[in-house]
């Protein structure tokens, strides 16, 4: 077992970096990378009361036109929740039954430790590597993600930094390290619908207009639509209502308005524009008086099978014997920002069964193969 990877993971867990806090994680990693010959640059961003730490680091290859591979990830973690519910302090690395416990163990300090040690081993064996190796870390992936990766990607684009491949360390594995990687993510589009009616007495409905009754048929139609059929890489687009609110609480009052929150997780077969126009047309056809606010959480991205997915799949097979599955399921990630400046983005990390939960942990035996898969990928693409 690589004590180097485990040791670094322990040090990272011990730094309580709840979003947007970094608690010194990036300084620790930056020092390790600097020692390896990386150029280090802080790209901190955001207001004083929500300052986000961002770190860009690059070790340039000997070939000026060589490929550039980026390791991307986040040092922030979600809040631990009720401390009494944890079996051990979430910010003190603890071991039980071959697992290391602590907030961020799986999402995603384990990946960060594995990436750093993979880089160390790779540089030790290939000090004159042809391609360039870079890191981009943020302390706001779990939060609003406004001053994190997206800001750095804008800066990198502005200065003309080329990126060819990116591996994001999000925990993607289901039962064994490498059994699944993400080669894309669905988009996320949310709507807040306000259906307007006229409040009145339930005994005098002709003097009122009930927005619940008016909207019911429209909502039934919305939930029944096949928005698209998906494609070879994506599940069909899904529509889900998350909140409905109407009524005064009294049993004899027809409500004056109804609020409905809904969300699309959409494939590359739909666009935010196509989904919006279909919803508006449907609401208009039902004759509703309404207001609708949209929030685009993220565009979908897709990395078709190619150089990076082949290298990652081969590394996983060589290290674990597994044939990995390419998938676009799950929530959004910072991959959506990086995909705008990097043509091939793959997410690959350890088992995700306990992320964001009480007693988050990682089987210790995930770390060594993960680190080796990262290093093998570097050897294939950059050496
Ligand atoms: Zn994460």
Automatic annotation (TrEMBL):
Catalyzed reactions: N-succinyl-(2S,6S)-2,6-diaminopimelate + H2O = (2S,6S)-2,6-diaminopimelate + succinate
Q: What is the protein's given name?
A: Succinyl-diaminopimelate desuccinylase
Per the UniProt record, the source organism is Roseateles violae
Instruction: Name the residues that bind Zn(2+) 2.
Output: 107, 142, 356
The uppermost taxa in this organism's lineage are: Bacteria, Pseudomonadati, Pseudomonadota, Betaproteobacteria, Burkholderiales
Pathway(s) this gene product operates in, as recorded in its UniProt entry: Amino-acid biosynthesis; L-lysine biosynthesis via DAP pathway; LL-2,6-diaminopimelate from (S)-tetrahydrodipicolinate (succinylase route): step 3/3
Protein keywords: Amino-acid biosynthesis, Cobalt, Diaminopimelate biosynthesis, Hydrolase, Lysine biosynthesis, Metal-binding, Zinc
Query: Subunit structure of this entry?
Result: Homodimer.
Q: Name one Pfam family in it.
A: Peptidase_M20
Cite a single GO MF annotation: succinyl-diaminopimelate desuccinylase activity
Q: Which gene encodes it?
A: dapE
Q: Which domain of life is it from?
A: Bacteria
| Keyword hit for Hydrolase | yes
EC id: 3.5.1.18
Binding note for cofactor? Binds 2 Zn(2+) or Co(2+) ions per subunit.
The family database entries (Gene3D superfamilies) matched by this protein are listed as: 1.10.150.900, 3.30.70.360, Zn peptidases
Q: Do you know which PANTHER family this protein is assigned to?
A: ACETYLORNITHINE DEACETYLASE (PTHR43808), N-ACETYL-L-CITRULLINE DEACETYLASE (PTHR43808:SF31)
């Amino acid at each position: 077992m690589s004590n180097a990877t485990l040791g670094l993971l322990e040090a990272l867990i011990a730094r309580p970096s709840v979003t947007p806090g970094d608690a010194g994680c990036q300084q620790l990693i930056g020092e390790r990378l600097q020692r390896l010959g990386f150029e280090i640059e802080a790209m901190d961003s955001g207001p004083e009361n929500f300052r986000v730490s961002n770190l860009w680091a690059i070790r340039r290859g000997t070939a000026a036109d060589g490929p550039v591979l980026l390791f991307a990830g986040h040092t922030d973690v979600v809040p631990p929740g009720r401390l009494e519910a944890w079996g051990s302090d979430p910010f003190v690395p603890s071991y039980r039954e071959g697992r290391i416990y602590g907030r961020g163990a799986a999402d995603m300090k384990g990946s960060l430790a594995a990436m750093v040690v993979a880089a160390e081993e790779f540089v030790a064996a290939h000090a004159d590597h042809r391609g360039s190796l870079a890191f981009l870390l943020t302390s706001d992936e779990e939060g609003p993600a406004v001053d994190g990766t997206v800001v750095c990607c804008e800066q990198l684009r502005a200065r003309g930094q080329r990126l060819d491949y990116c591996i994001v360390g999000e925990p993607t594995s289901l039962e064994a390290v490498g059994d699944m990687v993400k080669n894309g993510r669905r988009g996320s589009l949310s709507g807040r619908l306000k259906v307007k009616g006229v409040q009145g007495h339930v005994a005098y409905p002709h003097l009122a207009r009930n927005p619940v009754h008016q909207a019911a048929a429209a909502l039934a139609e919305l939930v029944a639509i096949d928005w698209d059929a998906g494609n070879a890489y994506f599940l069909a687009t899904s529509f889900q209502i998350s909140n409905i609110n109407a009524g005064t609480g009294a049993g004899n009052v027809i409500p004056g308005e109804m609020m409905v929150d809904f969300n699309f997780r959409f494939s590359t077969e739909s666009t935010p524009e196509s989904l919006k126009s279909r919803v508006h047309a449907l609401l208009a056809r039902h004759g509703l008086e309404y207001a609708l606010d949209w929030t685009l959480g993220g565009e979908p991205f897709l990395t078709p099978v190619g150089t990076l997915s082949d290298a990652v799949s081969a590394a996983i097979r060589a290290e674990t014997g597994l044939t990995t599955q390419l998938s676009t399921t799950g929530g959004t990630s910072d991959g959506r920002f990086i995909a705008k400046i990097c043509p091939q983005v793959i997410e690959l990390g350890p088992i995700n069964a306990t992320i964001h939960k009480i007693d988050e942990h990682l089987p210790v035996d995930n770390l060594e193969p993960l680190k080796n898969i990262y290093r093998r990928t570097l050897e294939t693409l950059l050496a």
